Amino acid sequence: MKTVEQLLEKAILKIPKEKVGLLFSGGVDSLALAFYLKKLGYDFTCYTVGIKGSKDIEAAKKLASELQLKHEVRIIPKKEIPSYLAKVVPMLRNTSPVDVSVGLTTYLASSLAEEDIVISGLGADEIFGGYSRHKNSKDLNSDLKKGLDRVYNGDLVRDKTIASSLGKEIFAPFLDKGLVSYALELPASRKISSEGVNKLVLRELLISNGISEDSAMRLKKAAQYGTGFDKIIGKLSKGSSK
Asked: What is the C-alpha separation between 242 and 232, in angstroms, rounded?
C-alpha cells in the first residue's frame, strides 16, 4: 500500500531538478516540504516574509537552523505594504482581507526568491484537516472535498497568477492528484487527534523521520496572521495608517 510519504515524495519529484525556492512559513506544511526536498537532493532556498516581530519569521528561523537549511528572510516595513497591495489586489478574484493577506504573502515571498520555480504548501490543510472548523466536522472527508474545490478554483488560480506576474512557476505538491486521492480515504482519526491536534498524519511522519516533536507539533497561525499582514490590512481598510 502506498503511504503518504511515498506519494508526497512522488509529487515533489515532479518538480524539475533545478534550483528552486520554498515559501517557508515555519508551519508543518512547509517544514515537511523542506525535509523531503532535502532528502530528495534538491538545491533549494527557503524564503520567509513578515512584519517585524512576526511569528512566522521567528518559527522559520528556528526550523531552518534545526534542519540546516539555506534561508532568506525579509522584514517588510509597514509603510511599504500599501504599495505592494496596489500590485497584488488587481490580480485577485476578490478583495476579502483573508485572500488579500495570503496573496500578499505569496507575492512577497515569491518576489524574494531568485529562482524561477517556487514551491508552496497550499493544499495540506484541505487534505489533512488543518483548519479549526475541521475539528467539529461530522463528515471530515466530505467537508475536505468541498474545501478542495475552492482551493483548485480559487487559491491555486490566485497563486499561479501571482507567480506568473513575477515570471515564476509555482508548484503545490500537496495538491498532487495521487496524494489527494489517498489522503481523502484516510479516516478522520489519522488527521485530527482526540486532543484536537490537526494534520496528525503529517506531524507523526516528520517525527518518525527525526524531526523534533516540538517543531513537528507546533500549531501555526494562518499565513495572514503569522506574517502580521492582517493587522496592517485591517487598519488600511478602515482608513488608518497608524
From this structure: 9
Three-state SS at 75: strand
DSSP string for residues in the chain: ---HHHHHHHHHTTS-SS-EEEE--SSHHHHHHHHHHHHTT--EEEEEEESTT-HHHHHHHHHHHHHT--EEEEEPPGGGHHHHHHHHGGGSS---HHHHHHHHHHHHHHHH--SSEEE--TTHHHHHT-SGGGGG-SSHHHHHHHHHHHIIIIIHHHHHHHHHHTT-EEE-GGG-HHHHHHHTTS-GGGTS-TT--SSHHHHHHHHHTT--HHHHT--PPPHHHHSSHHHHHHHHHTT---
Query: Chain-wide mean pLDDT for the chain?
Result: 91
pTM confidence score? 0.91
